[in-house]
Amino acid sequence: METKVVRHQKGETEIPVNPQRLIDISGSAEELMILGIPFIASANTSMYDGTTVPGHLREYFDKNGVEVVGNYSGMTDINVERIAELKPDLILMNMYSEKIYDQLSQIAPTIMMNDDYNYVRWRSRFRDLGDWFNKRDTVDEWLAEYDATAAELSAQIQEVVGDETFAVLERNTVAFGSYYIYGVTAGPGEIIFSDLKLNHTEITPEDTWANVVDLESLATVDADHIIFTSDDGTLGELEDNPVWQNLKAVKNGNVYLGNNETQYNLSYTPEGKLMYMQLLTDAILNHINIQDAN
């Protein structure tokens, strides 16, 4: 079996270049699928509920008998006992599971991703995987195609909206009455502002993934268009609220509703980001809600 020594968050580890019993608890299922690297178990469950397999991954998991052993972002525990029973030849993990690194390393060679919040800096994670498994060309080609698609979709949107501005909002399910205003660096904000290169106003943070604001502070959202997601895909308490009703985007009918489950499960990983970017584009171009887009 061909092996190589790779450097990662915990040092250097000798790994098989073509693992046959890989277990991924790092949230890298999509990347492994793109690279053609099989895995027997995964913690790539929903970022929304922590237990279910996201719809766009379910067919692959079912067809290949991929077993679920927890959630990669800490929403549910990693089943170390079951991982040991599966006798992996390589384990991929992230820093959410750092406390069990030593246990996992006793089971099989274990790599900890070099990004503490690896679902945010997805490109660097993808490139690391390409380097580790001698598939960097595949990664570079995929990213080039992604950027080309983003440029094409951006041109389509800008032909319709011109220089108009966008804001990306989410109803905060943890603290009732508060809202996330997404920045340009992660998730749906990254897709809208960094990938599609749409304009934003000063309310959009440049240096953090999101700001949390209360309802009254929504009065400062002066964008021409608003992407808004919530658990149930509705405005909820904002429906008849005068602060909300007075916003420019609301007055002009430029609000695109979506649900948090779709957003969480798609907007942080390669194939998911591509899918969500296409949904957002369809919603904006056809002036429909995100959940009605194709």
Which homologous superfamily in CATH is the superfamily of the largest domain?
Nitrogenase molybdenum iron protein domain
Q: Could you name the CATH topology of the largest domain?
A: Rossmann fold
Tally of distinct domains: 2
Order of helices and strands: EEEHEHEHEHEHHEEHEEEHHEHH
CATH-level-2 architecture of the largest domain: 3-Layer(aba) Sandwich
Cα radius of gyration in angstroms: 20 Å
**What is the CATH top level name of the largest domain?**
Alpha Beta
Name the overall outline: elongated
Task: Let me know the average pLDDT.
Answer: 93
Annotation field: number of helices:
11
Largest sheet: 6 strands, mixed
Low-pLDDT segments: none
- Structural class based on helices, strands and sheet pairing: alpha/beta
Please give the number of β-strands: 13
Overall helicity: 25-40%
- Taking the alpha carbons of the first and last residues, their distance comes to 44 Å
Give the amount of beta strand, in percent.
15-25%
